[in-house]
Amino acid sequence: MTILVTGGAGFIGSNFVLDWLAGCDEPVVNLDALTYAGNLRNLASLAGDSRHRFVHGDICDAALLDALLAEHQPRAIVHFAAESHVDRSILGPQAFIQTNVVGSFTLLEAARRHWGGLDAAAREAWRLLHVSTDEVYGSLEPQAPAFTETHRYEPNSPYSASKAASDHLVRAYHHTYGLPVLTTNCSNNYGPYHFPEKLIPLIIHHALAGQPLPVYGDGQQVRDWLYVGDHCAAIRRVLQTGRLGETYNIGGCNEKTNLDVVRTVCAMLDELSPRGDGQSYATQIAFVRDRPGHDRRYAIDAGKIERELGWRPAETFETGLRKPILWYLQHQDWVREVTSGEYREWVHRQYQP
Ligand code: NAD
Ligand code: DAU
């Protein structure tokens, strides 16, 4: 048996592949286009491991998908590949439509062709798990109940709109063709290999580099934070025991304002790697102009996956957050590599006054 993972050189995908192969011997075919966000160094510990086959390619390439499915006969596809950063979607939405909508559609079509040609037993066991986001539900008022799976879709950024479109396509392929799909909608992840364009790794990196820590607007926006290893465990659980055609919300029960998150990262860094001048990293906090259309609050009600599949997060925010901070401190070579070249241009474009 084999699984096909798309986007397995990115942040969550590489954590998923590493965790998968640490827990079992079922091989992984890993298809990734290696955009700025994909990094083979994330998978360096798998060098020479015959259970991992990396394929450099695009999910928009139908012929490649057909060939991979025919050659490897995976029993499941776990679909992570996406353009994932909201700020980039605001500056340049085209790539988000291409990968998240056209790419997901191309993958669904290839899956439909492949699945349609399997024998009855293989068709019965086959799965496509689509990894999506809580951002498809839009923004919550401060006291509103957390998102359940039946919350209406109200995406507000080009990123979340493109993910919503892919969710709808996945749903339609189940409803119309009977394709055996599962969808997960997860809250904000953090952990090792997190690319330093996203809030937590950007703050760690800027703090250690002595740069300003940019907080958008008033910093009172709320996100629900989940350790990436908990997300990967939830995906494995849904893949194993999720009900076909269902969607499952995944979250950490860790609602925090951005300012609280930044202050907590600073406090942990003060303890683990104090500044030479004895001052707190929090003195580097700088309020900057807000993200256009910035969603005020996300919160996940993860009751369904807990009740039906028995999953709940193992980490609290405080236990989980130490891991990427220690990881960043111990992997400055990785950080140096990903923050050269294109990354500098991005930071300049995004944060220029
Ligand atoms: P990421 O940006 O770190 O990684 C995306 C990966 O997809 C990269 O390796 C990239 O090279 C690859 N990729 C991009 N376009 C591709 C294409 N056309 N063909 C093949 N590969 C391509 O993203 P991430 O944070 O790891 O997110 C993974 C998935 O999880 C995404 O679908 C995202 O929407 C979803 N998600 C992310 C979070 C989060 O907090 N990061 C939360 C919920 C859901
Ligand atoms: O909710 C799940 C989503 O979480 C995923 O679908 C996305 O792929 C992932 O990028 C993430 O989206 P966010 O926009 O919430 O994450 P980001 O880390 O970009 O920002 C988190 C919050 O911090 C958000 O309110 C914006 C704010 N922020 C972000 C950056 C990069 C800042 O205040 N300053 C910053 O420099």
Features of the shown structure:
Rossmann fold, 353 residues, 3-stranded mixed β-sheet, globular, 13 helices, binds nicotinamide-adenine-dinucleotide, binds 2'deoxy-thymidine-5'-diphospho-alpha-D-glucose, alpha/beta
Describe what this molecule looks like in 3D:
With 353 residues, the protein is α/β, with parallel strands linked by helices. It has a domain at 3-190 and 227-253 and 299-316: Rossmann fold, CATH 3.40.50. Helices cover 44% and strands 16% of the residues. The chain contains 13 helices and 12 strands. It has helices at 11-23, 62-72, 86-91, 94-116, 120-125, 158-177, 199-208, 228-241, 258-272, 303-309, 317-330, 332-338, 342-351, and strands spanning 3-6, 28-32, 52-56, 76-79, 127-133, 181-186, 188-190, 213-216, 222-227, 247-250, 255-257, 285-288. It has a 7-stranded parallel beta sheet with strand order 3-2-1-4-5-6-10, sandwiched between helices. A 3-stranded mixed beta sheet has the order 7-9-11. A two-stranded parallel sheet has the order 8-12. The protein binds nicotinamide-adenine-dinucleotide and 2'deoxy-thymidine-5'-diphospho-alpha-D-glucose. Nicotinamide-adenine-dinucleotide binds next to helix 1, strand 2, helix 4, strand 5 and strand 7. Residues 84-86, 133-135, 187-188, 198-199, 202, 214-216, 221, 223, 258, 291, 298 line the site of 2'deoxy-thymidine-5'-diphospho-alpha-D-glucose.
